[in-house]
């Protein structure tokens, strides 16, 4: 007699994860179109991640962008084709994950500031040495630590492993506000987030 295996419980991400994989051409548009379209999308790195809750856009004409003064060894990935990861260390402490956007040479990108953790929470908690899921990925440095992002990810294609990006299955209510932790072009409302989300790095003014 053949005994059927007991069905395995679905993970939170299997319940929520859209099925449409985002490919590099998705990122070949204006950074201001890509950023809001990524809110609610799913980001996984080596199977760990969740729903993108907050992003900031940086355009090459923007004085706060790393590319504003031209190409350097540090920011060279920004000047390449879209759909690649740009990873840098902030203040010599935290890694920050960005997605290169627009046509090659534009040197524009979005900074991933926060996600709602859905998959691999045990790994995130070990890496962050805390249990509160609200604090696991609420900020670019925390997110990078939780997802084990390092400079080794710099220049990797976003549509190949270890990255997985999936389009949202529904559009959340999105709000905007000024970017955080910058002094130049600080008045520009180029931070995008899920309205009212508890996973934002900081509340948006409209909340």
List the helices and strands and how they pair.
Elements: H1 12-16, H2 31-38, E1 42-45, E2 48-58, E3 85-90, E4 94-101, E5 108-119, H3 121-128, H4 140-146, E6 163-166, E7 174-177, E8 191-194
Question: What does the model show?
Answer:
This protein has 207 residues and is an alpha+beta fold. The protein is 14% helix and 26% strand. The protein is built from four helices and eight strands, in the order H-H-E-E-E-E-E-H-H-E-E-E. A hairpin with a 2-residue loop joins strand 1 and strand 2. The N terminus is likely disordered.
Task: Fill in the keyword field for this structure.
alpha+beta, eight-stranded antiparallel beta sheet, 4 helices, 207 residues, 8 strands
